[in-house]
Design goal:
It contains 9 helices and 7 strands, in the order E-H-E-H-E-H-E-H-E-H-E-H-H-H-H-E. It has helices at 16-27, 40-54, 68-81, 105-133, 154-174, 192-195, 198-205, 209-217, 229-240, and strands at 7-10, 31-35, 59-61, 87-90, 136-141, 179-186, 251-254. A 7-stranded parallel β-sheet has the order 3-2-1-4-5-6-7, with helices on both faces. Helix 3 (68-81) runs parallel beside helix 4 (105-133), helix 4 (105-133) runs parallel beside helix 5 (154-174) and helix 7 crosses helix 8. It is globular and about 50 Å long. The mean pLDDT is 97. The protein binds nicotinamide-adenine-dinucleotide. Nicotinamide-adenine-dinucleotide binds at residues 12-18, 35-38, 64-66, 91-94, 114-115, 141, 143, 186, 188-189, 191-194. Keywords: Oxidoreductase.
Length: 261
């Protein structure tokens, strides 16, 4: 319970990696604000479970991460109702798979807005609170695609490389203020984001579903295993510890050896 008294916003936490991070932060006592889309009843059940786990208030905010005004309003709400924010996890993300000549412009705009620009706005809104508190932890969910490319993912690869550069820049701007800024770069994690890209990958590469699973997704990782959301969450919690206060501007690969290969 080393995060008792701290507040955290985890964007894109109604599912997958973000939900695992929200649970792991709540298990350490943090007041968590969750965000993202989904079934209202399921989201309320997750919110109540976070409150029970942390013994602290948990809130849901449905801010659309492609809308800057909604992002600033969410951070203001966290400050007013939970304090802080002391921790932000910029995790909301979407994917679109298509050859560049067929890539819809609105999909490029959406992937860049949700995966990259939202992290910039979140940090812009939260850093003043963290500097005032002389403590803060910013964790950005990047991807193995912050380091290496795959065909047909131009917007996603550009956004994730951007997240890695943004992480380093804001780490330098906050380094003397007790604030650390790091990113985690998972390999493939079995979540709706990965499952939903299978049909487009089949189309773009002319592969069967089985070939996408074995020759694209699992083959990327020398371990031949998906990364688990709970593994990403455990690293996010470690980065919030005092023992991690010298770690800033880092990009942690958690990709079963993908980028080593
Ligand atoms: P997911 O689809 O399970 O979760 C995505 C979350 O983002 C959901 O809560 C969804 O509601 C939310 N979201 C989507 N659009 C949003 C918007 N406009 N505003 C607010 N919330 C929005 O996917 P995931 O795999 O858990 O992805 C989480 C993060 O991890 C993403 O940034 C993704 O790029 C990254 N990532 C995923 C993998 C993987 O293999 N799954 C690998 C590396 C990095």
């Amino acid at each position: 319970m080393f995060l008792k008294g701290k507040s955290a916003i985890v964007t894109g936490s109604t599912s997958g990696i973000g939900l695992a991070i929200a649970k792991a932060l709540a298990a350490e006592g943090a007041s968590v604000m969750i965000n993202g889309f989904g079934d209202a009843g399921a989201i309320e059940a997750e919110r109540a479970a976070l409150e029970a786990a942390s013994g602290a208030k948990a809130l849901y905010d449905g801010a659309d991460m492609s809308k800057p005004d909604a992002i600033y309003a969410m951070v203001d709400r966290c400050h007013a109702e939970l304090g802080g924010p002391d921790i932000i996890v910029n995790n909301a993300g979407i994917q679109h798979v298509s050859a560049i000549e067929d890539f819809p412009v609105e999909k490029w705009d959406a992937v860049i807005a949700i995966n990259l620009s939202s992290a910039w706005h979140m940090m812009r809104a939260a850093v003043p609170h963290m500097k005032a508190a002389k403590w803060g932890r910013i964790i950005n969910t990047a991807s193995a695609h912050s380091l290496v490319a795959s065909p047909n993912k131009s917007a996603y690869v550009a956004a994730k490389h951007g997240v890695a550069g943004l992480t380093k820049t804001i780490a330098l701007e906050t380094a003397t203020h007790g604030v650390t800024v790091n990113c985690i770069s998972p390999g493939y994690v079995w979540t709706p984001l990965v499952e939903n890209q299978i049909p487009d990958t089949m189309k773009a590469r002319g592969l069967t579903r089985e070939q996408v699973m074995n020759d694209v997704l699992l083959a990327a990782q020398p371990t031949k295993k998906f990364v688990l959301p709970e593994q990403v969450a455990a690293l996010a919690v470690f980065l919030c510890r005092e023992e991690a206060s010298a770690i800033t501007g880092a990009n942690y690969s958690m990709d079963g050896g993908w980028t080593a290969a």
